[in-house]
Design goal:
CATH topology of the largest domain: FAD/NAD(P)-binding domain
Number of helices: 18
CATH architecture of the largest domain: 3-Layer(bba) Sandwich
Bound molecules: NADP nicotinamide-adenine-dinucleotide phosphate
CATH class of the largest domain: Alpha Beta
Structural class: alpha/beta
Radius of gyration: 24 Å
Number of strands: 18
Number of domains: 3
Distance between the termini: 20 Å
Length: 539
C-alpha cells in the first residue's frame, strides 16, 4: 500500500517504495519490520553481505556485548523472544550475529534486503516529495521516506600516521574485520588502541601469538565484565518474566535492568566503601556505572575514591610496577570516557610475550613495510590490529551524500556539529530519519533506538492515514532539542577529550554527540509532538 499524495491519490512520481531503510543493524531491521507490518512497501539496502550491523562488521576475536544479552535483543515480539535462548549474560559476536540472522528469518525480512549495496547519494526532490537514493553499484531507489539506520560506530578511523598503506604484513581494523579467520599463531602482532575494542582483542589473542606489542596513547578505567553462562534455571525465569522484563526495561532511563543506588559515597566509612567498591568490581558490566554510589558521577571526591580502589586493583594484578602505572588513567575519572569492560585484560600483561608501548612517551612516527616506528625505534610485525576507533555519531551520515530541500548538504548543515530533533530528523531534510544516530544515544542502544523506530513508524502511518505526504521538523522545534543537548551536556560525566565530543578526529567540530537527557527527555519531546498531532510538522 503506497503512501498517498496530499490530495489522497498516489503520487504522480513513480515511487519505487514507500520506505527505504539503509543499514541492516539492530535499528534498521526493526524499522523494516514496522514498515511491512503497516502495509507499506519497503526495502532495505545494506553495504555488507550480512545482517547485524556492528555485529556483522566487528568480528574481531573477543568482540562481545557489555549490555546483558536479553536486554539487548528485540522485545516487541514475545514469540521472537521465546524462540531464542541467549547462552551467555554478555553474548559474543558470533552469538549476536546468529541472533540477528534468526530475527530476520523469523520475521520474514530477508527477501526485502539487498546486500552489498552501499548508498553514496540521497537526493530530495521537492516537486514529488520523494528521495532518490543511489548506491555504489548504481542501484537507484525512489522512496517517499528514507530511514538511514547507519549507526553511530560504523565508520572506522585510523591514526593519521604516514606509511600505513606501505605495511606488507596483515593489517585489519577491528571495525572492518574479515569473515575469514586471521591467523595469529606464532606471529609478531601489534595492537594499536586500548578502547573497548582493543582491550577485548588483546587478551583474546595472547595465547596464540609469538609476541604482542600494545600501543597505548591513553589508558582507560577498565573493570571486569563478569560474564557468565545463563543457566537453564535463569532461562526459564527469563521466559516466565518476559512481560515484567519488558516493563522494567521500558521504565529504565538508560535501558538497563541495573537499579540506581540512593546512598552517597561518604555516608559510608572507608571500610564500608572499600567493601562496596569490591562488590561493584565483581558486578556485571554497567552495574558499575548505574548501581554505584548515587554521587559517583557528580562528586569528584567520590569518583576519586573509586578510582583509587581501581588503581589498587590494577597494581595488584599487573606484576611489573612500571607497566601497571602506565595502565592507570591520570587524565580522567570514572566514566569521564566510555568505560570498557574486560575479561583477563590486565592479566595479559603478566605474559612475557606482551609488552606495552606508551605513545605519550614515544609517539608514532610512521608505519613502514615491516612494522611500526615510534620515537624510540622500529618494531617489526607480521600482523597489525588497528583498534583505533570510529568517526562517532555523524561519520556515516556525513559521508552519504544526503541532499535535502534546495540541495542542502547534510554535512554543511552539520558543519558545526549535528543539528537534530530527537536525534532522528533535521530541518531541511523532509521525510528523512536517522534513528540510532547522533543526539540519540542514551544508554543501551536497542532500547532508545526502539523508542525512535516507533516514533518514526507512527509518524509515517499518521501521514498515510491523514493524507499527508511530507513531514519535517520546524527550525525552532529542532533548536529546542539542540538547546536541551547543549545545556545538559554540561552535566554529562564525559569530558571533552571523549570521542562523544568528536575529539578523536582532527578537524571534527567539538560538539556533544549523545542525548544527555536520556530516554526521559526523548519521551518528553516525543510526547509533545504526539499530543499536537504533528501540527507544524506536516505539509
Ligand atoms: P575507541 O574507544 O575510540 O578507542 C580507540 C583507541 O585508539 C583509543 O585507545 C585511542 O587512544 C586510540 N587511538 C585513536 N587514534 C589514535 C592515534 N592517532 N594514535 C594513537 N592511538 C590512537 O574505539 P573502540 O575501542 O573501537 O570503541 C569504540 C566504541 O565502540 C566503544 O566506546 C563502545 O561504545 C563500542 N564498543 C563496545 C564494545 C562492547 O563491549 N560492547 C566493544 C567494542 C566497542 P585515545 O584514547 O588516546 O584517543
Amino acid at each position: 500500500m503506497a503512501v498517498p499524495a496530499s490530495n489522497g491519490s498516489r503520487s504522480a512520481v513513480d515511487t519505487d517504495v514507500d520506505l527505504l531503510v539503509i543499514g541492516a543493524g539492530v535499528t534498521g531491521i526493526h524499522q523494516l519490520k514496522r514498515a511491512l507490518d503497516a502495509g507499506l512497501t519497503a526495502r532495505l539496502l545494506e553495504a555488507g553481505q550480512g545482517v547485524g550491523g556492528v555485529w556483522h562488521w566487528n568480528r574481531y576475536p573477543g568482540a562481545r556485548l557489555d549490555s546483558e544479552s536479553y536486554t539487548y535483543g528485540y522485545l516487541f515480539s514475545k514469540e521472537l523472544f521465546e524462540g531464542w535462548e541467549w547462552r551467555e549474560r554478555f553474548a559474543g559476536q558470533p552469538e549476536n550475529e546468529r541472533y540477528f540472522n534468526y530475527a530476520v528469518d523469523k520475521l520474514g525480512l530477508r527477501g526485502h534486503i539487498r546486500f552489498g549495496a552501499r548508498v553514496n547519494s540521497a537526493l530530495f526532490d521537492q516537486t514529488s516529495a520523494t528521495w532518490l537514493v543511489r548506491t555504489d553499484d548504481d542501484t537507484e531507489v525512489r522512496a517517499r521516506f528514507v530511514v538511514a539506520a547507519t549507526g553511530v560506530l560504523s565508520v572506522p578511523v585510523f591514526p593519521d600516521v604516514p606509511g600505513r598503506e606501505d605495511f606488507t604484513g596483515v593489517a585489519h581494523h577491528t571495525g572492518l574485520w574479515p569473515d575469514t579467520p586471521v591467523d595469529f599463531a606464532g606471529k609478531r602482532v601489534a595492537a594499536v588502541g586500548t578502547g573497548s575494542s582493543g582491550v577485548q582483542v588483546i587478551p583474546s589473542i595472547v595465547a596464540d601469538v609469538a609476541s604482542l606489542t600494545v600501543y597505548q596513547r591513553s589508558p582507560n578505567w577498565c573493570t571486569p565484565l563478569n560474564n557468565e553462562p545463563i543457566t537453564a534455571e535463569q532461562q526459564a525465569e527469563l521466559r516466565a518474566d518476559f512481560e515484567q522484563l519488558r516493563e522494567n526495561l521500558n521504565a529504565s532511563a538508560s535501558g538497563f535492568l541495573h537499579q540506581p543506588r540512593d546512598r552517597t559515597a561518604f555516608e559510608d566509612s572507608r571500610d564500608e566503601r572499600w567493601e562496596f567498591h569490591d562488590r561493584m568490581w565483581h558486578s556485571p558490566g554497567f552495574a558499575k556505572v548505574i548501581s554505584h554510589y548515587a554521587d559517583m558521577l557528580t562528586d569528584k571526591a567520590a569518583n576519586d575514591d573509586w578510582c583509587a580502589f581501581m588503581a589498587g586493583k590494577v597494581r595488584g594484578i599487573v606484576k611489573d610496577p612500571a607497566t601497571a602505572e602506565r595502565l592507570i588513567p591520570t587524565d580522567h575519572g570514572w566514566a569521564g570516557k566510555r568505560p570498557p569492560f574486560v575479561t583477563g585484560y590486565f592479566e595479559a600483561y603478566n605474559d612475557p610475550k606482551v609488552s606495552l608501548v606508551d605513545l605519550r612517551e614515544n609517539p608514532l612516527v610512521r608505519v613502514t613495510e615491516t612494522g611500526i616506528e615510534t620515537s624510540d625505534g622500529l618494531r617489526e610485525f607480521d600482523v597489525i590490529v588497528w583498534a583505533s576507533g570510529f568517526d562517532f555519531g555523524t561519520g556515516a551520515l556525513n559521508r552519504m551524500g544526503v541532499r535535502g530541500r534546495g540541495g542542502l548538504a547534510l554535512e554543511d548543515y552539520w558543519a558545526d556539529g549535528p543539528r537534530t530533533f530527537l536525534g532522528l530528523m533535521s530541518h531541511g531534510f523532509p521525510n528523512f530519519f536517522f534513528p540510532g544516530g547522533p543526539h540519540g544515544a542514551a544508554g543501551n542502544n536497542p532500547r532508545y533506538a526502539e523508542d525512535q523506530v516507533n516514533f518514526v513508524a507512527d509518524a509515517i502511518e499518521y501521514l498515510r492515514d491523514h493524507g499527508h505526504r511530507v513531514i519535517e521538523v520546524p527550525a525552532d522545534t529542532e533548536a529546542s532539542w539542540n538547546a536541551m543537548v547543549a545545556e545538559l551536556a554540561a552535566y554529562s560525566p564525559f569530558g571533552e577529550h571523549s570521542y562523544f565530543f568528536g575529539s578523536n578526529i582532527a578537524g571534527k567540530p567539538r560538539s556533544f554527540l549523545l542525548n544527555p537527557g536520556g530516554r526521559p527527555k526523548l519521551r518528553e519531546f516525543m510526547g509533545e509532538v504526539l499530543q499536537s498531532k504533528y501540527s507544524r510538522f506536516l505539509s
